[in-house]
Amino acid sequence: MVAQTEQEPRTAGELIRFWRRRRGLSQLELSLDANVSTKHLSFVETGRSSPSRQLLVHLAQHLDLPIAERNRLLLAGGFAPPYLEQAYDGEMMRPLRESLSRLLEAHEPNPALIVDGLWNLIEANRAASLLWDGVDPELLEPPINMLRLGVHPGGLPKISSTTAACNAPLITKLRRKSREDADPALGELIQDVEAYLPDDPPTSPATQPVVSLDLRTPVGEVSLFTVIATLGAPLEVSAANLAIETFVPMDARSAARLGELSAKAQGE
């Protein structure tokens, strides 16, 4: 007997049903939440009724679809996609790239960088070179994956106090995101980097408010913690997946050493 596998959803109705099930909702629950009759929703899912653009946008909002999937849903329904899909290095994206470059420069002397949805490095400021100075060369072959760099023994753990376990909270969040967004590429990356995580999570009580890493530098150790930000209201698919990660000094001594490193770099 040949096992049956679920076919890739193609029609607007099939996509609605796929995402409704992905969100763990029954037809009744989605109908009540979106104020749509159960009968009409059933007809949409089975293809007996052709949904309007307004209804598809409405359901996409209540299902909290990623914007790339909202485009896919509208296209499947025969409508123009609501969001842009442009190459990040294209001309239309140039103003955003320039603004983000200025943002990275403004963070100096603190290391700061931009990653895409798979945590591949897009751009970094000069101070960010501290994060890979001394790591294994094969980890710096393009595209540099910052998530892998953070857990691989030859990556950040090699040049700082960080361990793979320090990245467990971020990996947990990304694993959940890969499931919620039905993102197989992100899921494969998470499965790959999880191999570096310890089997048993640390059980010792916390002694500070955030996870930090003590980075070894030419002027001494610099203690850092990270802040991760995303764009507030993206209208383009690749922009929606960008994340800006800033490494902030934990104390005044670390801040002073980052300033010293920056001054030396500018004087060279």
Q: Please state the average pLDDT score.
A: 93
The quaternary state of the protein chains shown equals: single chain
> In CATH's first tier, which class of the largest domain applies?
Alpha Beta
Using the CA coordinates, give the radius of gyration.
Answer: 22 Å
Sequence of strands across the biggest β-sheet: 2-1-5-4-3
CATH topology of the largest domain: Beta-Lactamase
Report the major sheet.
Answer: 5 strands, antiparallel
Report on this structure.
- This protein is α+β, with helices and mostly antiparallel strands and 268 residues long.
- The protein folds into two domains: 12-76, lambda repressor-like DNA-binding domains (434 Repressor (Amino-terminal Domain)); 91-166 and 209-267, Beta-Lactamase (2-Layer Sandwich), CATH 3.30.450.
- The chain contains twelve helices and five strands.
- It has a five-stranded antiparallel sheet with strand order 2-1-5-4-3.
- Strand 3 (213-215) and strand 4 (222-229) form a beta hairpin.
- The chain is elongated and about 70 Å long.
- Residues 1-5 have low confidence and may be disordered.
